[in-house]
Specification:
about 230 residues; mainly alpha; Serine Threonine Protein Phosphatase 5, Tetratricopeptide repeat; 2 domains
Length: about 230
């Protein structure tokens, strides 16, 4: 059944019914400068996106106009997760990236991808590589978070760390994402990641934040955490 404007109106009504004022106020404090229209939790939005994906994702994308935080979030989930040819998905990613205005939409979008086919995983990696150098804050963050979500693997760790090292990190949310990614890399590939930290080639903020995040991990031994303090700048 084709997705209609009436269906979209029903989705907005469902968002309003699911909204929690207390959660809205809490979550808005975590995403400065962003206002939630309804205050709907991510699992509920994922369930709505999954239903749309089974119904008519392209119809939804055609009629939807993401005016609110929640509409943008669901749109990203549909683009990332609904069944469609991969080349079509990449085209929709191109159109969605300029809509990302905060870390929450960015990171939820990244975690919504399911890159199960080797050829799709590689094609996405080739798409991501130049985005690490983007001058758009949340486009660069998208590349970094996609890496830490899907590509901290034996075949990508070397190139991934090099891309993190070379990425422009002056926008706050890019630097924070790089620090997070470095900490994830350290847990899985401590030797390769320690070589990066030893070079002290990352900006001081990123280097020190990465070390902080590694030291907060329950998967790193105490003696390794203590040794990392030598590489703070």
């Amino acid at each position: 059944m084709a997705y209609t404007r009436e269906d979209y109106g029903a989705m907005l009504a469902q968002l309003e019914a699911l909204g929690e004022p207390g959660y809205k106020a809490f979550h808005e404090r975590l995403i400065p400068g962003t206002v939630m229209a309804y205050g709907v939790r991510v699992p509920a939005m994922r369930a709505m996106a999954k239903k749309i994906g089974k119904q008519d994702p392209m119809g939804f994308l055609a009629v939807g106009e993401p005016r609110s935080y929640e509409e943008t979030m669901i749109r990203g989930m549909v683009i990332a997760g609904a069944p469609m040819p991969f080349e079509q998905r990449l085209g929709l990613v191109d159109g969605f990236l300029p809509l990302i205005g905060n870390w929450a939409v960015c990171d939820t979008f990244c975690s919504s991808f399911k890159l199960k086919k080797p050829e799709e995983r590689e094609a996405m990696w080739q798409y991501l590589r130049p985005l690490f150098q983007s001058g758009e804050e949340f486009t660069a963050r998208f590349a970094v978070v996609m890496f830490l979500c899907h590509y901290v693997t034996q075949d990508k760790i070397g190139e991934g760390l090099a891309l993190l090292e070379a990425a422009p990190q002056s926008p706050y949310y890019v630097g924070m994402a790089v620090a997070w990614a470095v900490s994830v890399c350290y847990v899985k590939f401590p030797g390769e990641t320690l070589a990066l930290l030893r070079r002290r080639s990352l900006p001081a903020f990123t280097q020190n934040k990465a070390i902080q995040k590694i030291r907060e991990s329950y998967r790193v031994a105490r003696e390794d955490k203590d040794a990392l303090l030598a590489y703070k700048v």
